[in-house]
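dumping this here before i forget
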Amino acid sequence: MRYKIFLITLFIALFFTSSVFAAMPVVKADKQYFDVNTGLHILSGNVTINYKDRSVVAGTAKTNMSEVWASGGISYHDKDISLTGSTVYVTFPTRTAYVDGMVTFSRSSLKIIADHSEYNWKTKTAIFTGNVQVYQNQNFFKSERLIYNVKSDALIDENGSLLQASASY
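structure:
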């Protein structure tokens, strides 16, 4: 009887352990080590962190497996969108990527350049601030703040008004 209880307990423990690790990000880098003082994985050289359909590529990064801080010409990809910039902070609990430093957002016929962006992959909403430039098809416009809804492919100003690019570039 004890043997059966032990096997069932072991099976349950293995099942839950494998379920937890299946949801963990996959980390690759030329050099990596674990800093016991900070509890962070320190990564450098060709850093790639994949989590489900999302990935972060950078020169250097730190992660505690629920947050990522990366720099060195970063790119963040989520299905058909791409964000590039100087630095990125990704937090998996809030499902948000914060990109800074000459941010470029690309998706099919849309390109947005800004100083800062916040992309929430749960709500599929991107917020751009600081010197925002929008290139859509053959149209162009500028703003200081802009919201882009990825689901509806809509550009929205801070007042909630739907925007249409008007001037040709």
